[in-house]
Structure prediction request, 298 residues.
Amino acid sequence: MGSLVRDLQKQAMDSSIPITDLLRNAYVVAKKLKIKEFEKWTNLELNGYKDNNVPDYRIIQGQIKAFNPLYGCWIPVFFDNTKWTKALQIGVITQAISEIVTLINTSDETLQMEIPPEIEKYLLETMEVPLKIAKLISKSQLQKIVDSVRNAVLEWALDLESEGIVGEDMTFTKEEKQLAQSVTYNIQNYIGGSVYGSQIQQGSSHSTQSQTLNVNDIKDIIESLKNCINDLELNEKDKKLIEANIATAELQLSSPEFNKTILRECFKTIRNVLEGITASHIAAKIGEKIDSILNQLF
Prediction:
């Protein structure tokens, strides 16, 4: 009989082993050792994330392009507001790892991501000739997600062995289980970034922590913007830009675990527009409130 942990290391180093099989085996190890963070992470990777709160390696940057029917190809789309463009390029991959692998194995080298309807509507209105718009990503970006997962499992398995936790004869001894509970295995140390909204408290496998961000403050700012947007004397383009970002922020807040990166880019764009209104007391007051929110989002 072999060792659960050493076998996991071998599987992680063997690219011919399907990533789903590797994750299931990692889940078994985490379950047997009662390492809650890795139980949750492997489950989410196998079954998909229910909202936009994903690890950093699942946040990618696409290219916004328009389809030119005359030439039958995608062409770059450029916007005056570079910060707005940057926010729009952000893509959050929530699909189960098996779906990601399926996409990688398709014949197309470039894949499309949906753009929220409110944003697409705004973009079409800014174009002289309305064309189909999409966010394009490469298969190599999806492959990086799979590689990040495989590397995380390998690093974790190596750390388990270094602590004397090997799982000989396909089981863990009482001492190994106790040792696993005495060592803190923070998932962010292995995935190189944030942990799906940081809902799991560091250093404890059973406790949770709430977001430090005050959601009610964000909702209040959004309502203030919606109520006074007609009083800000904005040109039509800037007004639609703010409305599109408000719609995106509201869409994020409708999720129980919103994505801070997307929210931050929305409010940065709104803040930049408001900074251009030099003689507005209303814009200045709202700008101050947005600054407070941005400090929490970084």
